[in-house]
Amino acid sequence: MENILNLKQINIKAIEICSILQKHNYQAYIVGGCVRDLILNQIPKDFDITTNATPDAVMKLFPETYATGLKHGTITVSMGKGIENHFEVTTFRIEGKYLDGRRPEDVTFVTNIIDDLSRRDLTINAMAFDPISHTLLDPFNGENDLKNNIIKAVGNANERFREDGLRIMRAARFAARFNYEIEESTLEAMQNNIDTLLKVSKERIKDELCKILMTDNPYYGINILQKLGILKNIIPSLIPNRPSTHFLPSLDFCIKNLETRVACLFANVMVNTAKEDLISLKFSNSEIKSITFLLDMLDKVELFDKDPNIINYRQFIAFVKNGMPDTWSITLEHFINLTQAIQCPIGDKLMKYNGEIVWARRDLKINGNDLIELGITAGPELKKILDNCYQEILINPENNIKEYLIQFVYKLNSNFCN
Fold first, then answer.
1. For residues 265 and 25, what is the distance between their CA atoms, to the nearest angstrom?
2. Separation of alpha carbons 136 and 122, rounded Å
3. On the CB side of 257, how many CA atoms lie within 13 Å of its CA?
4. CATH of the domain at 215
5. For 308-352, how does the pLDDT look when each residue is reduced to its tens digit (9 = 90+)?
6. Is 370 inside any structural domain?
7. Could you tell me how far CA 103 lies from the centroid of its own chain?
8. H or E segment at 36?
9. Within this chain, do residues 278 and 340 fall inside the same structural domain, yes or no?
């Protein structure tokens, strides 16, 4: 309890909200993840507040509020400029039936905070703290589970995961985040309710998957999903005990960059197959482009890796420079880290040619307009000539001079000029 009593770690504006509510004879607590983080002596990212005041009462007590989740009893209270001064204040509630495996059809406001805490997912997230009286409410022994490094569902585990399938992913995420063991009955309930998870929108599943990948122990979280048979359901190409999952343990060795870690997840999967899974999971176009480009780089570098000569080096670097979705330095850094993580390091071989000039296609000193002026008709022939010019400067970078390239074009096409 020592850590949580250090009020310096609690946002003073959150304390002020609780104080105002309590002065008007309402109960008020900070609740959930912020309490968990305080016990772990970590500074919470945000502070959620729960109260027996109704949403209407909350809006009357505070001059600037937003009805961001009125249907579920949540009001956002602004205590100053900036998002960091916005706090979600939610009325104690119990929830109706979960027909879609994600959201309750309705909620009922209650006056007993224990009833409210009993609807939450994990014991470590079902604690409330009164920052005025310094009282911790922990009806499900979440503090003890934190001390014992255990992830455990609140109450009946099957009911919790049947209500909201996304809690399965959340349990795996918190296990990965804190490197905790999942309690046996909770683990069993996760496996029993895969069908409920599959009712959840792909966007939400993708969001939790990414959060798992961005923990300090991504393989631990992904391996939980794999052992329970969940991973193959959300990512069909990752079939247990097949080559497609060979590089999953390498996740822990990737830099903390989402696209690099997702690329590692698919490092032994065909690029087009990986793209299908990424599209299904609702990754953004820019994310898919970055991830699949890293996978394409793994394919393209094989020729250079087997025969690391200057020509193969230039061809590979040209592929990167002509297609990279990010800056050169970032793309190369992420790719080299990816190859190191999957124990196929290529960095040293590439560095041997570090001083070599490799032009990108955009650097070519002759363009389509120049060729048209020379009498070449726009179309496939023009593109073919430009391709030949580009290959010439890859092999002989010193020849990337407009006058030289014009003569090069004449040699290729001695019969076209007027």
1. 52
2. 17
3. 19
4. 1.10.110.30
5. 999 999 999 999 999 999 999 999 999 999 999 999 999 999 999
6. yes
7. 22
8. helix 33-39
9. yes
Length of the chain: 418
Same domain, 187 and 271: no
Nearest Cα neighbor of 137 from 35, 2, 277, 10 is 35
10 closest CA partner among 60, 56, 46: 46
Domain of 94, CATH number, reads 3.30.460.10
* Cβ atoms within 10 Å of 252's Cβ, excluding its own: 16
Q: Are 54 and 108 part of one and the same domain?
A: yes
Bridge partners (DSSP) listed for residue 88 = 76
Residues lower than pLDDT 70 in the chain: 1-6, 95-106, 414-418
Are both 48 and 79 inside the same structural domain? Answer: yes
Q: How many Å apart are CA 52 and CA 104, to the nearest integer?
A: 20
Domain interval for residue 41: 7-144
Residue with tokens 């309690």: 183
Residue located via tokens 């706090």: 87
Dihedral sign from CA coordinates of 70, 89, 138, 113: negative
Q: In this predicted model, what pLDDT tens digit does every residue of 274-308 receive, in sequence order? A: 999 999 999 999 999 999 999 999 999 999 999 99
Considering the domain architecture, whether residues 140 and 12 belong to the same structural domain is answered as: yes
